[in-house]
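Figure caption, in words: inputs first, then the predicted bound structure.
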Amino acid sequence: MTKALPITLVIFISGLLLMNCYGKKVEIDWVYPDGNHKALIMSYDDGLDDDIALAQLFDRYGIIGTFHLNSGLLDTRAIWDQSKPNESMGTYLSKDTLLDVFKNHEIAVHGTYHKALVGLSDEEILEEINVDIENLTILSGRKISSMAYAFGSTNDHVAEVIRTTTLSNARTVKSSYNFDLPENYYLWNPTCHDSEALEYLEAYLSLDSPNLSLFYVWGHSWELRDTLRNQNILKFCNEIGDRDDIWYTGAGAFADYHASLKALEISTKQMTNPEGNGVVYYREKDQLKSLHPGQRLIL
Ligand SMILES: [Zn+2]
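Bound structure (zinc ion present):
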């Protein structure tokens, strides 16, 4: 993956190169909350009970998954071809097991009934998504922040409708094949599907950059019934998990942190973390430092 630094990243980094009062450039070494520059998101769709084994696999390696569920289908059999009611893809997760299965993972939206959103009216889009948010909030008792588009069905307009909900981010199925942070969190392109993740593994493990980066993988746990695919995800987790140079996080926590970085008020002489923002972290002479809401850093 040798390619020029994307323009969005260049703009972001340039924004962090500040001039202090002596006209000297001050570079802030921004890091994720655990002090790292690298992060991993594993994002899985549909909520079939194959998620149970995958969540357990992630648990073994300290990896955090973001699991996108269709709340209207929980506790039912997965009949995907209505003309063949006897052919089931398996069973959707049971509502009363969610908190146990996803104890260490993020619960997220995939639409109440897995509808393709392109072609629906704005009201229908909001019904499909807001009911899912409500159901999952009640079932989990958690704040629900993330979504993945069912069938990958989205466009600029659908994304703007989703922006009006309480969600902070929505994932597409379009691979970026890079490790950049997204420009539009409502059309968030992952790095790649999990069937291709091994091809990018070495590039990410060996990446040694002072810039924030993200390896964002998506897939379906039911695809991992295939023996080879299962072996591959085991290998992937075994190699990328339990490392001290990667922040393992859900999509919601990641989007929140990046939003906090972007909300900093920066001038030539000082940088302020506004009230109500999240804590942000940076490194100074190998020490992890933080700037809390309301705090100011003189440059
Ligand atoms: Zn799906």
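Residues 45-46, 110, 114, 150 surround zinc ion (CB under 6 Å).
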